[in-house]
Description:
By secondary structure, this protein is an alpha/beta fold. It has 21 helices and 16 strands.
Amino acid sequence: MAVELVKMPFTFLLSKMPYFRKQPRASDATYDHVSQKETDLEDGFEEGDEELADQAKTHSIGPIPSSIVENKMKWLVYTVLGILLVVQAVSAIVRPAEGSLIFMSWTPILLPFIDFAHSAPSLASLNPLYGQGIGWGWDNQTALADPIRWDWLPSVDKPLDGFKDWYEPDSQHYNAANDPLKISNLDEGLLAALKGKLGDVKIRHVVLVKLESTRKDVFPFKKDGLIWEKLAETWPNGTFPEAVQERLSTLTKTARFLTGDYDDGFQHNETRRRGGINAKNDHTTATYTLKSVPGTLCGITPLVADFNVEYNHHVYQPCLPQIFNLFNAMNEPEESAKGEANARADGAEADEDFTTYKWRNQFVMSVTNTYDKQDLLMPVLGYKKEDIISKEYLQSDKAKFGKVTLPDINYYGMRESATEDYIKDAFKMAKENKERVFLTHLTSTSHHPFKMPDEEVYVPLASGDSLEDVSHYVNTVGFVDRWLGRILDILDEQGVADETLVVMVGDHGLSVVETGSVTPYYQPNIGNFHVPLVVSHPKLPVIDIDSPTNSISILPTILDLLIETGSLGPTNRKAAQDLVRNYEGQSLLRPLYKASMHTGQADWQFTIMNTGRAQVATRSARDPKWRLIVPVIKDTEWRFSNVEEDPHEMAPILSFDFGAFLKMVEGKYGKEAAKWTEEASFITRWWVDENAKRWRYEP
Length: 699
């Protein structure tokens, strides 16, 4: 049987070669009449070949004396193939058990088929070397359970979007109490800097800005950072021309104002700060924009699958627009506790009580809404068609403020300023209609090809063209920073600055300096993951958080702030208090746990790597210096880095083989690092399977 299996492909190939085809003997050759139509189909006769067809019917083919040639050629081929098989067998025996060598050893013509065959989960076969595996017992653990029963859920004829699991029988939903990786800090008190400081904070509106391709080290830009150093190296004596220094020193004024971070190496005449929390070590939930968006809006980790398939699967937690729609569906008393507390003792008119007002969701961007089915994703996240302002609407005759005729600046659409009238209008209409605004805005100019509007002054930041992409990228970062300043000006002009919470977060970074990449596609470098995260309000003190955080914490932080500032009515507040405890992320208003007080399990943080299916980035708050890239499919490398010793990951450890990989980590960084790597690998293995369960996805 084994011999036949080996011979089968060769027999097939030989049968297709003219020398090896069976030749008819003269005595066996007979020809029966068949229709011309059938002859055309089987033998390929075309119109005009009737004469040739007739000859084929009436003449027999003589014998071809090819047996000698056939036998010689057959033995020659068998001999060559036999030698090759022996060489392959010997190579397999003496070759080290390293996955990369196995992968490279395949004949190039077969690689597409081998790669396809290996594109399946690769984590099931892991074997621990140090006893740090969590064990197969975890395979029976899941955070899915019967939905928590809340008496405040409104009775409705049609289940509320985002809350269908609570209305449909036999549905299961994420339950934090069942999640072995869940760590809650909600029972902790507020950060010391916030205690006694929230009484004057009013949050009527929430603005959430997703910053396209924005690295943390450009928010704000800093002198003597990696980008500065690389650009300086292109100039004689490492000295920037005056125009370049001026551009870099004034590049990110708004980022400085929002973060309160003026420790950037430049001279400043003033140090104005808006106030709020600056998370300095935040990593995104995904390095693909259309996965990062639901990660932020829904407080979840996106689906481990390529591209935007989230729209077609179970978004396993209510998203912010859906939570605000829930608040709208609940009956809130006319006079809330907040309104009563604001009544002045001297009988003067009380502050406006907005806690009974309805929320209005809006998603505003100047680029297309159709790339990778984003138009199908947004309704799943809670946005109605009329809630979305995009390039398609802006350039249509239906546009409220007239058809926009600005040119495109990149593949996806126009500059951000195309949306200015609509951002103004959101707050103007909210004032007239006594509404609350939840406005989400996605920036666009800092996306490749990093082109600014024609009327903007471009300053070449590098000498020559070696870092041209970096120069253009940094210039667009400055343009977006000025646009963010314009958004803050709009809030001032509309009289809502002191009652608007502004959250700004990078959708993903870009390793344009470290690796020269202009996209995070299959890029594991930390430059693609480390993003700015600011939670800003004029009445909040300036607070820096140095602990590792993940953008999954944005939703619980927003809810926690609405609760703690009394910005919700009593009914909505009760709902928010229950909801916030059932999300995975910790609140940034409170001390962050690096590990569970109950189980000792570390605060593990995961990021889905662009485009989603192949790799997951894992780190833990307990051991923030170590970072692991886990291959979900075969023929993809394991990757380990120590960001304390190698902050830009210029020399990561790479290997296709897990066992060899652990030994390499131990050899360079010691046994503790190797044991952490093993533990992180097994935690990630469980989490990847759990991720599919939560999303109701079958790979």
